[in-house]
Please model this.
Amino acid sequence: MKTWFTAFFMAWGMFLAIPCPFPRWDENARPRMLVCLPFVGVIVGGLWALTAWLTELIGLPRSIAALLLAAVPWLVTGFLHLDGFSDVCDAMLSHRDLQTRQKILKDPHCGAFGVICLLLLILAQFCVFFSAEKIPQASLEGVMPCFSSRCAMQAFENAKPTLLFGLNGDPRFAFLLSIGLIPVATRACAGIAVLSLRSMKTSQYAAMNSAAENGGTQSGAELKAEGVADLSVDAEKAKTAETQAEGKTELASELALRKKKRARCRAALIAVLILAAAVPAALFGVLGLAPAAAALFYWIFALIAYRNLDGMNGDISGFALTLGELFGAAVLVFVQSGFAERLIVIG
Model:
């Protein structure tokens, strides 16, 4: 249990701009740190949902509320994933050969493509939440005087439990829970991608996965074979062969154990992803599809970048995570907007 707490605070310190209350680091806990990524997403999503609730409670102007909702996930993470987003855009849009694209990806400077894509991303995120004026938790009196927001809420509450409306028809609860689970779903996908996809040779994940990929049998056998001097030639050869065989067996066992741990971590992340996507969908029907949509778009963009750059790294994960959250929020807002408009027409 202590190792899991260490892994969680490792993930907190690495992926959040909020000061970590218990800074820890243990190299042995690194694989578990990936499993803790969704719990980092709980913090990001919780603050995102809290901001949405407060902006409605205080009654902030729509433009200010949209700006805050657009910026919160980036502020909480210290703009960490935006850096990866711009780097991947620079590399992919350069349309150069693979080696040059990977070199551009590692370049700390931000190119023109990265700047343009960042501006488009910021505008898109702002526009998504600026469009949220049409969802049921906003006032509908200004859209159609004969149909009030109270009527809209009553229509949702009176809807029978179906696949369309789920078990709960409260659009406010649907919005807050869904936006809170979007970062959980995308970070679960990030952990699965790191554990499943081949790491780029220049990635920090390559060093973490090198033992699992290469085995390292030769160096282990050489280490075991040290200090065999002072024996006859035949005895030395026999001892060396025996030691090498023991070393290979030990390393094979260690490699199998590491693969088993990785499989367990991957299974845990898949379970978290399924929960994050299934719970809101079961509760709210189509109103709760945003976390699933965020996960879907994460994988779409992650695989595009993975194939284009021939490997997985942190920048690609940040690129896919940022776009996954954007499209998840867009699905959340526009699905609820569509239901509000349908109720207005009915009214």
Residues 44-199+279-346 form one domain.
